[in-house]
Amino acid sequence: MESIGKDIDALIQKRGLSRYRVSKDIGVSQERLLRSLKENANPRWKTIKKVLDYLGYEVIPRPKKGGDTKKNNAVMAKTELKRGGKVK
Q1: pLDDT of residue 60
Q2: Which among 10, 40, 51, 52 is least surrounded, fewest beta carbons within 10 Å?
Q3: Which of 15, 23, 2 is nearest to 57 (CA)?
Q4: What is the CATH number of domain 4-83?
Q5: Which helix (H) or strand (E) covers residue 81, if one does?
């Protein structure tokens, strides 16, 4: 399973931001942010959403490719990060 925290950490680094700056700007403790970004972490959705909003991204649910379409429509198992218009 892929780690969303690892992917988000890469986005933070790509922007040249520090984790400390992001944590302060979004109002989340640095400890919570670091725990959320660890590999194999189970981060809170609220924390992930705040970071993605800050970076200008939104999460869009989409069905899995292949397999049972009815099942895929019922269980939106995958998400896609889509670049939003918000820039900090």
Answers
A1: 84
A2: 40
A3: 15
A4: 1.10.260.40
A5: strand 78-83
Q: Which two tokens stand for residue 60?
A: 């869009």
CB-based contact 86:53 (threshold 8 Å): yes
Domains of the chain by residue range: 4-83
Which sign does the torsion angle of CA 2, 68, 66, 83 carry?
negative
Higher pLDDT, 35 or 88: 35
Kindly state the tokens that stand for 5: 């925290």
Of the candidates 33, 29, 31, the residue with the CA atom closest to the CA atom of residue 55: 33
Burial 37-49 (b: 16+ CB within 10 A, else e): beeebebeeebbe
CA–CA gap between residue 49 and residue 58 (Å, rounded): 8
Q: What is the model's pLDDT at position 67?
A: 57
Which token pair is 51? 């970071």
